[in-house]
Amino acid sequence: MKKKSIILFVGFLMTINVQAQFNGHFSGGYEAYMQYYQDDSPTNFLAPQDKLRSMQYFNAQYQTGSFNMGIQYEAYLPQAFLGYNPALSGTGIATYFARYKKDNLDITAGYFYEQFGSGLVFRTWQDRQLGIDNAVKGLRVKYRFNDVVDLTVLTGNQRLAFETTPTTLYAANTDINIDKLIKTKSLGFKTGFSYVARYEDVSNTNSDLPSVVGLYSSRIGLTKGNFTADFEYVYKESDSRTVNHVLLDQVLFDGDAWLFNMGYSQRGLGINATFRRLENIQMYSMRQLEGNSYNSGVINFVPGLTKQHDFSLANIYVYQAQSGISFGEEKVGEIGGQIDVFYTFKRKTVLGGKYGTKLAFNFSRWNGLNTVFDIQKQIYTTDFFKPGELYFQDINIEIRKKLSKRLKTVASYINLKYNKPKLEGEGEFVNAQIAVLDFELKLAKKRSTRLELQHLSTPDDWKNWAAVLFEYNFNHNINVYAGDMYNYGNEVEKLHYFNVGATYNKSAMRLSLNYGRQRGGLLCVGGVCRYVPANKGLTMSMSVSF
Amino acid sequence: MKKFILFISLLVSLGLTAQEIPDAGVEDMSGNKLNFKDLINTDKPIIVSFWATWCVPCINELDAISEVYPDWQEETGVKLIAISRDDERTAKRIKALVNGRAWEYEIYRDYNDDLKRAFNIASIPYMIIINNGKIVATRSGYTPGSEDEIYELITE
């Protein structure tokens, strides 16, 4: 089977290579990640049996005229990294597609990625760091009528590692540009509607569960001058729940989501505010996948709406959207919002100084819904607006300033509240403050250095942390770094999370090497950010596109 | 390991041909869907920068370029198109951030990852420099001062 697929794949490449010499063009990419795990007694980390693992992705696309086709080959040898779905092991052709796109018509057969509206109703995407690839295998047809109406219909089965689900999705979406219909230029006015249905065979179960469960979305977007406003409502039809692989079908629950966003911006000032309320809105392409830890079979995209911080200590307590029903943990959803303000103090003013000063402020706050549970009957009632228990709050400010021709700084302060018992089901409520100072210094001959200092102080949980990172760039292509995160406040064990590494960039190729102890989070070095799961050992990665 | 060598030799045999401009959908800040091909329909040099609101080095790079951008435009007629890789989690922040930072770039969003897949972008910042409709250079990562190298590329 493996051999067959490789021969097929090489054959495919050769064919397109030959064709490419006549017309059309060929493109592709290769990404490889290798990791060698080491035992690490201070963190009680035992290297798995397969200490050396690699994940490789090779994709090739060929385009000629209105036709486009592509194939993706994946290899997990002998299996994917820790934290990824263990079903990702071995090698095989993971996805392929053929697409015809001409004028207003766009038809895809095979695997495709699609998003309706904000994704709250439907999104398939791939994220290698998170191990997500929920492409749908089937048929998709898009048509655009007079630049006014976009219509999409699709059907297929969702990808699950190297397989697809036995369940089937049917979906339709329309986006209408009302501004173009009424021929106005002064107002942006869009509206859209979506329907996504999951068909799951229930004939072999004893219950009278619905075989079709649908998600509906309607939305509207307005832009006028410096103002924008968007609103979306998503409804999920009544469905059973699955908790720890057990199907609970005595009481069915529907769910919904309300999303409202407003923004104002002019040169030098930008403000954006979002409100969202979620209740039982996450949907999976199979009932039994509900709540799985690899995000397998996720149909809709329900992200945590908080600022995505780029510094390591700010990624210890990260909020994830709460959208499922749990009678045990007394959770049914979330309500809250966030505000962002971006401001530039002009040059040659008191606060702007010689080069100007840039400020970013963000505030987010998320609560549970105020809910009364009837555990006996397994039902609940909830308020629409009244918030329940506080889940998460983040107040942060970031100031960027160029101090001289060579020196730039970023100073950041973060004040966090993290309801760990509610969000992780264990531990204590965390109040934390984080301060970050980042210096970037240009040296002669294209050389530069960067120094990052961070501190997290909290009387709770793992207590205080300090972190330092030093980076030296020989030029744009070669960089080395060394860093340490030190959990010096921890009473049980004061642990160092050290890291050393190097990166090499050359046009569209990038190579990197890292050795050290990691806790999960974004690692940003050499100008690139990547999510790194917790581990200790040696990591190598390579990416090239052509 | 054999497969790895096979892949690499394939890459080499395919000659690492220059990429072409893909037919991919992007979204402007008013939610209009446009084709990426139509954005670069000019004989002036174009810098396409892939960035995101959560990517500090991307912002450092675009901030650094914004200081010299008026000079670059005057001297070369260059246009910078900043294509955001933000997904819906952070997409609403784009317009506020761009205006708040007083960037003068054309801003679009790769809303369905079409460009990411077409260009095989593994990480950002990622930059493509186009001249006369042809891709003349590709860069990934940002280091302080590397904007000077970009200037050299567009004046070549």
Provide the descriptors you would attach to this structure in a database record.
heterodimer; A: 546 residues; 24-stranded antiparallel barrel; 3 helices; B: 156 residues; alpha/beta; Glutaredoxin; 6 helices; 7 strands; 23% strand
- The tally of strands of chain B reads 7
Q: What characterizes the major β-sheet of chain A?
A: 24 strands, antiparallel, barrel
Class computed from helices, strands and strand pairing of chain B:
alpha/beta
Mean pLDDT of chain A: 89
- Total helical segments of chain B: 6
**Integer-rounded radius of gyration of chain B:** 16 Å
Rg of chain A, nearest Å: 25 Å
Count of discrete structural domains of chain B: 1
Helix count of chain A? 3
* Helical content class of chain B: 25-40%
The unreliable regions of chain A are 522-531
Query: Which percent range describes the beta-strand content of chain B?
Result: 15-25%
CATH superfamily of chain B, called what? Glutaredoxin
CATH topology of chain B: Glutaredoxin
* Unreliable residue stretches of chain B: 12-17
Largest sheet of chain B: 7 strands, mixed
Distance between the termini of chain A: 28 Å
Strand arrangement, major sheet of chain B: 2-1-5-4-3-6-7
Question: Got a strand count of chain A?
Answer: 31
Could you tell me how far the N terminus lies from the C terminus of chain B, measured between alpha carbons in angstroms? 40 Å
Description:
Among the domains of chain A are: 113-303, no CATH class; 304-461, no CATH class. Chain A contains three helices and 31 strands. Chain A has helices spanning 2-20, 178-181, 420-424; strands at 25-37, 52-64, 67-79, 89-102, 105-112, 115-116, 122-123, 126-127, 132-133, 136-145, 149-160, 163-164, 168-177, 188-199, 212-224, 227-243, 246-266, 269-279, 333-345, 357-374, 379-402, 407-418, 430-442, 448-457, 465-473, 478-486, 496-506, 509-518, 521-525, 528-532, 535-545. The longest helix of chain A has 19 residues, at 2-20. Chain B has 156 residues and is α/β, with parallel strands linked by helices. Chain B has one domain: Glutaredoxin, CATH 3.40.30. In chain B, 53% of the residues are buried. At the A-B interface, helix 1, strand 1, strand 2, strand 17 and strand 18 of A face helix 1, helix 3, helix 4, helix 5 and strand 7 of B.
